[in-house]
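Minutes, project check-in
Item: structure for the 148-residue chain
Input as provided by the requester:
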Amino acid sequence: MGVWDWAQSVYGRPGAPEACLSLQDLYGQQACLLLWAVWAGETDPGRLERAAAVVRAWDETAIQPLRQVRRALKAAQPPVEDGAREALREAVKGCELFAERAILEALASLVGRQPGEANPLEALEAASRAWGPPAPRNALAELAEALG
């Protein structure tokens, strides 16, 4: 299964969206990198550092700006009608998802091999370290459990 289809299927599992958002919002992690690491079974520090650099550049260029606009559009913006604001918010959300899909697929193409078989928690811990200050193990374990 391709990385995007896999990510969509596991993100729909109970607890997965909340765990991803918690890791992003509370601990500064990047959910796309974390999900890719689990999908790829990636624990190699060198490959994860390279992947994190690729994600960081795309995150700063595309994902974060789109996320900021989407979140800003959550509140009313008088005199713009709520229907127009919500329609724009949904369009921006679609662009944000497209940006996330693009980076996941770019990472998958960098693997150059079949996905590995690493323990999900080990892959999450390794990816979290590569991204920056690592998230607490219990927060990563919540995601690992949700991903099954």
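Outcome recorded: Residues 72 and 89 are 9 Å apart (CA to CA).
No further action items on this chain.
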